[in-house]
Specification:
The complex is a heterodimer. By secondary structure, chain A is an alpha/beta fold. Chain A is built from 10 helices and 11 strands. In chain A, about 45% of the residues are buried. Classes of the chains: A alpha/beta, B alpha/beta.
Chain lengths: ~325, ~160
């Protein structure tokens, strides 16, 4: 496997060159798209990092891939494609609407982010089966990890409040703990109400009020995991439906209610706001989905001394979709 | 869970909220339909609001606004200020009179809150003065990003 970078930003070259070294994989700086496509044609098991600062740059990449390899070719793996941009995600909808989207990185990374990022690249490289969806993948070896089984929707509130209190005991600021608790609230709610589908693939609880009790089937109990290694907190929620709608999720994440008004829709019980709030206040999100099998949402937070630092932390978005042969 | 205390003074219904705003909150049941021309909403003790809570909030206060009731949001907690900034129509046409501003002590990292009127914030151009930490006497500085925390005042 190689790391191919197509960007002339000095920051990108320095960071990804160093990262490739830590991953012990060759680093290739592809100065033009022809070279990038040639590398991909030779070896499709590559991590590709591209400068997606403008829509034109991204379109040029997409066109080159379409003409030289084919967007839907097996050689193209969006999970391995990382798009780098200065702007926030909601300010560059051309990224989330790209068929090749797999990972987004704002250009605020630095040496501090290397450890977590190295682990994300390894996950991107290796993929994940159900048994591998563990927080240990991302945290230091000394991390303390707890697992909870969510059998009913109404368990959410007490788990979230307990999490908030425990975070304060761990030294997180009260405001930070409340934000993390709110994010956890959203992803558990998604796992219990939005994920369940019937045998025809229809979402069962789309219109169910979110205060209703739902008892999950024994084989669909949600896993809620919390891990902390002293610096990084990771929270993951795993459902075993694997019903994630990629386009819908990316659409929610790129919404900007600074400009457009929020409209109350009475035909759905959810608000369509949760994931964008989760992402905005996080240190990164990794979503892994194997259609028909599982959806895992892992959110990362750096423990900081102030809320300003917490808000300023580097965050990324990774959406890795897998298709098993029998899905 | 959300607690509501209501009080009517002259032509104004005063509503004080405390707790969390989530899927169990029914504003229409808790507050009812106001029959005063004005409504003051105090949220200093609202700790958390999730996305379903935001939807319920906007649905309720939009219905209040359509009745022509003049709404003022006062002593807004940091959780509410966050939503005011994130969602352009969160206040449903009501005005934001005062907000809590977060501070962090640079010496003991204690979190503090200062109450500011929005008009005063605009007068000082959002240059928030340091506070004296009530715990250790150290310097507590504004603990957020000014363009983001006060963004709604520049709309």
């Amino acid at each position: 496997m190689k790391l191919i970078l197509h960007s002339e930003h000095a920051q990108d070259i320095q960071f990804f060159h160093a990262l490739a070294g830590k991953l012990s994989i060759p680093f290739i700086h592809a100065h033009d798209l022809d070279q990038l496509c040639e590398e991909l044609n030779q070896d499709s098991e590559c991590i590709v990092v591209i400068d997606a600062s403008t829509e034109n740059l991204l379109k040029a990449f997409e066109t080159s891939i379409a003409e030289n390899i084919g967007v839907f070719s097996e050689k193209i793996k969006p999970n391995h494609i990382f798009m780098v941009c200065e702007k926030e995600l909601h300010a560059c909808p051309f990224i989330t609407t790209s068929e090749l989207f797999g990972n987004y990185l704002p250009r605020t990374f630095n040496e501090e982010n290397t450890a977590l990022f190295r682990r994300i690249l390894e996950v991107s490289k290796n993929g994940a089966t159900v048994s591998q969806l563990k927080l240990e993948r991302f945290l230091e070896p000394n991390a303390k990890i707890q697992n909870y089984k969510i059998t009913k929707a109404t368990m959410k509130l007490s788990l979230v409040e307990a999490l908030k209190e425990n975070l304060v005991k761990l030294g997180f600021q009260i405001r930070t703990a409340a934000v993390i608790a709110s994010a956890t609230d959203e992803i558990i709610m998604n796992a219990t109400f939005d994920a369940p589908i019937d045998s025809n693939g229809k979402h069962i609880y789309l219109n169910t009020p979110r205060n209703k009790e739902i008892v999950l089937p024994a084989d669909k109990i949600v896993d809620f995991n919390i891990g902390f290694d002293g610096t990084t907190l990771a929270i993951s929620v795993v459902d075993y439906y694997g019903s994630l709608n990629r386009k819908k999720l990316l659409g929610h994440l790129s919404q900007d209610f600074h400009k457009e008004e929020f409209k109350v829709k009475s035909n759905v019980a959810g608000a369509g706001l949760g994931m964008s709030n989760v992402y905005r206040n996080s240190g990164g999100i990794l979503i892994e989905n194997e259609f028909g099998h599982y959806t895992s949402v892992t959110v990362f937070y750096k423990k900081t001394a102030s809320y300003k630092e917490f808000k300023d932390q580097f965050h990324f978005l990774s959406l890795h979709c897998y298709y098993s042969s029998d899905a | 869970m959300l607690n509501i205390v209501k009080n009517q003074k002259d032509d104004t219904l005063l509503v004080k909220m405390s707790g969390t705003i989530e899927e169990n909150v029914d504003f229409a049941a808790l507050i009812g339909a106001p029959n005063t021309p004005k409504m003051d909403i105090i949220t200093r003790e609202v700790l958390r609001i999730n996305s379903v809570g935001v939807k319920a909030w906007i649905k309720y206060f939009q219905s209040v606004a359509t009745k022509g009731i003049k709404m003022r949001f006062m002593e807004c907690s940091t959780a509410i200020v966050e939503q005011i900034n994130l969602i352009s129509n969160f206040t449903c046409g009501g005005s934001v009179e005062s907000i809590f501003v977060p501070f962090c002590c640079s010496q003991c990292t204690t979190e503090l809150l200062g109450l500011f009127r929005c008009t005063d914030l605009q007068k000082i151009n959002f240059e928030i003065p340091d506070l004296k930490c009530s715990k250790c006497g150290g310097v507590a500085q504004f603990d957020d990003i000014p363009e983001e925390y006060f963004g709604f005042l520049s709309r």
